[in-house]
């Protein structure tokens, strides 16, 4: 046997090392992508406002009296007295405005807002939101919203037909609210630093704590992390670092998160998602289809002329049964690639794959959680 030249051996070794490093790099993710600092979160804001400028698609004051009351109050603040008048405008709609106030949002920064109709308006297309106060759960006003609405749907109605696409009674205003009040400094009020996993898992929590400890032992000669449960990792900040600098150094560390073996199927769309760690014990699977077609072709039987007979309908039924070829295949999912290759050998459509996975789970050979949506 001829020996491989040295330069080929070196090239093959370098290629294998590069492929190995690439697979590790693809599997590793940053801690900031799978966990967040506990206590640092968004705050929800809500407000009641009016949308004006609609083309006759707004609320009817008779069916939505709150719209008339809000319109009168707004005009009173602008110096217009309409208390004794009956308003019948259809160019105004009452709406609920919601927004998420991100942490550390400064005064004067802009946030996106969502607008949804509250009355019987048929469309908000072309409308403009009048300045609306957005309050938090504590009753304090944190932002003011105003601007032209972006509506993604439309609704057109005639005397005998109506065409609707999307939702015309909901809209969005990108950057439509200005922050007027600062949220109390959440970072300074934290007495205990803790990371919270977005997908709780004991193995992932242990890996995060291990990666943080390996870094802090090397840099600061101390173990700074401890996994308290499958969701929370407690942190101890080095004395010479600020909280923001410590969190920034931790978030850029990379680990390989773990996930449970799970198969998710959606029978409505035929979607099948198989996790990486799904295993299947050795099973033999066959799948065939039986199609029965029944065709009715009745015939008319007429009597001979001058025979005093009756015209009758004679039924004629044709039954055709076709059974598809069922291929027997052995599936042993040592890994995800083997499982997918075994299912592809049978040549099935998504509905057939879903039926087979459910049958394998019933047989006890699917070593994973099967989630049917």
Automatic annotation (TrEMBL):
UniProt family annotation: Belongs to the FlgI family.
InterPro entries registered for this protein in UniProt: Flag_FlgI
Keyword check for Signal: yes
Sorted UniProt keywords: Bacterial flagellum, Cell projection, Cilium, Flagellum, Periplasm, Signal
Keyword flag Magnesium: no
Subunit structure: The basal body constitutes a major portion of the flagellar organelle and consists of four rings (L,P,S, and M) mounted on a central rod.
Species of provenance: Bosea caraganae
Signal peptide: 1-27
The protein's role, per its UniProt record: Assembles around the rod to form the L-ring and probably protects the motor/basal body from shearing forces during rotation.
Molecular-function GO term, any one: structural molecule activity
The protein, known as: Flagellar P-ring protein
HAMAP family referenced in this protein's UniProt entry, alphabetically: FlgI (MF_00416)
Compartments reported by the entry: Bacterial flagellum basal body
GO cellular component: bacterial-type flagellum basal body, distal rod, P ring; outer membrane-bounded periplasmic space
GO terms for biological process, alphabetical: bacterial-type flagellum-dependent cell motility
Pfam family, one: FlgI
